[in-house]
Amino acid sequence: MADNFVGRDMPGPLDQDAAGAVEQLEEILSAQPPILALPPVMSLRLGYPTRFFFDKHIAKSLELRRIHPATTLLDEIKGLAGHYLDEFRTNVQHTGTSMPQRESLGTIARNGLFKSRETGPRGVARYPAECTDLPRRISSRLFLFRESPEWCQFLLWGRIGREDEADPRLAVDEKHSLGFPVDQEWKLCVRNLPHLAPGLLPDLQELHSRSDLIGTWVVMTPSAKAESLITALDRATIPSNCNAGTKGFPVLPPSTRLDPPDSPEPVWPTILVLNEPPPSSGQKLPSAGAERSSEDVLPPTTRRPRSTAYDYGELTPESLVQLGWARAVETDSSVIVFTCGTLERIAIRHRKTQTLYLSDVIDITEIRHPPYLRLQVGLFVAVLKDALSRLHESEVVSPELRRSTRKRRAPEDDALGNQLKRRKTATGSSRTFERPQSAIKIAGSLDFMLLYMRYGMHDSPVPASFIRSAPCLVSSGDAEEITRPSVKRKYLREECVVVILGPQIGTGATGIAHKTSLEVFDAQGRTVTADIVVKIAFLAEQQQKMRHEFQVYRRLAAHKVKGVPEVYGIFDDLEGGAIMLLMSYCGTTLWDFRVDPMSYDLDTKASQRTRFLAILDAIHAAGVRHHDLRPLNLLLDDNGEAHIIDFDVAKLDPTEGGKRRERRALEDLLFDGVYPDPSFPSLPSTIASETDG
Ligand SMILES: Nc1ncnc2c1ncn2[C@@H]1O[C@H](COP(=O)(O)OP(=O)(O)OP(=O)(O)O)[C@@H](O)[C@H]1O
């Protein structure tokens, strides 16, 4: 398990004296990394992932405003590696240390080639994951475990994010970072850390609790285009406006969010040449606090022909920088590495001046001063040092800005991925959700929606415009299918449903679920609100699943089934990319109510178990089989009322035998704690067609 990564000494030659040890280290770090070779693939698009939807909603104070060259950055990083190697040289404690084996680099490369078995960014990511194994061991030994006789693998590198798994058709993926080993409960794995430098343990624990992803790596597959993008990054211009195209919208009251500060003692002082405030974004916003704008709301004029169409943006130097920057804001990283396995650039995000400082281009297999692996040692030390030095500065930062990425992880088979294998998560908020029917009723009759994001790094400068594409099932249970209304040139404020997305509460195969506040005006002009849940789907398959799920809810609503979410419709993003299912909040999952986090025992009362079975009977009576009954889809609300959610793989008109088997499976789950591994999403077998008898 995760513990394996800690304290695993690499077998090495006999003890060294100080000079010999350093010499051996230098030799290891001078080795040239192998050349990356990937299996050929048919077509991969070097496009901007659909996450650009979220990037349009980054708070103004966190946006990228300026790019500046940092010609001394590589020297700074090289100097840092040198400093810690010198310290190692003078530190007598290491006598008796066995060296990590240089040969391990040899085992990953044959004839100077690193052959990745996988394709796309996954294949490229294997390269740093394995080639930087030694630099990671060495940097953690030099910086964190100064007295250790071992070269343990404490720093992990990999990809996270099952919540929006890497699109296999894309040749770029920005979700890579450093991380620490964790235990089953996602706590920093502190066993076998007796040699941690004094006083560091609480800091590491705090760092891990705030952000378990350190640094941002944007990985592209190697190609002439990827190389030209990396080369041209310093010529990228900042677009004056990359927000949604809505105009005349109401502005939310100012947020109380505090943005994280930079380190008071930057690891890269010579590169920070700018001290003046960031240039303005050039965008004119309506005056703040204009809760009720006198202007009409104007939907964007440039629209995608079909809002459900999933399309990648163009990957240009501008959008590549934007991609890395947005991810760094999300993970609160100061360092962004752009790599395509052949060329690389290191960038520093300076928060105060909203500036990205860009290093010179690094030719991975050619660079000699410093050699690539030595540069990596300095880089990893720099990333850690910066993150730790910012810890005490950012104590005041609102916990809201802490990342919401510690949700369901993508288990990839690299070191970080393996330990990140995790169930989908509900935050188990104690907040009580209200659901005044008046707000829902009014919203049910409106077709135009303004979406604001307000959580973490998001504070929409401009809301996105959405149009209804499926009806509210509460206003009319047996709602007719609606054709998407045509978009009007302008809307009065009272014609708009305002939704303000809060933090994620869970993720799954269909999309990302958020706590959301819904606001509309009533007939008297008063604002009425309701707390709801919104599930967002981006990819074409997700959207298809979501529309199927809606059809299932329609059937359930027509049969007046209680104990399932109330559904308030689907809205499509006018500028493309996303569709959203609006529904009622159903509480916390049984998984989160486990008696003991280490066990699979569920904490339910007899009456709740009976109620879950009664809900399933009603679902079956309506002619629906759920096909995915797991503790993550069984919820108890604040009043202890049972709910069954997640009908994206449900089937209509199932066989009697299928229904009986599903009921027995639910009984097993509720009474005997027998259920599928919650780490994994709906298994293909559960989606299989209804052929059973
Ligand atoms: N109406 C709701 N009320 C409360 N929490 C919800 C609601 N809908 C979704 N969630 C949370 O979000 C998580 C993911 O939602 P859901 O299961 O609907 O997504 P999915 O993409 O269909 O997942 P799966 O991969 O299991 O099919 C749930 O496990 C739950 O924690």
From TrEMBL:
Keywords assigned: ATP-binding, Nucleotide-binding
Residue stretches making up the Protein kinase domain: 499-693
UniProt-listed SUPFAM superfamilies: Protein kinase-like (PK-like)
Pfam family of the protein (one): Pkinase
Residues involved in ATP binding: 535
Gene3D superfamilies to which the protein is assigned, alphabetical: Transferase(Phosphotransferase) domain 1
Keyword ATP-binding: yes
Alphabetical list of InterPro entries matching this protein: Kinase-like_dom_sf, Meiotic_Drive_Suppr_Kinase, Prot_kinase_dom, Protein_kinase_ATP_BS
Region of interest (Disordered), residue spans: 273-309, 399-434
PANTHER family: SERINE/THREONINE-PROTEIN KINASE YRZF-RELATED (PTHR37171), SERINE_THREONINE-PROTEIN KINASE YRZF-RELATED (PTHR37171:SF1)
Name of the featured protein: Protein kinase domain-containing protein
Organism: Mycena chlorophos
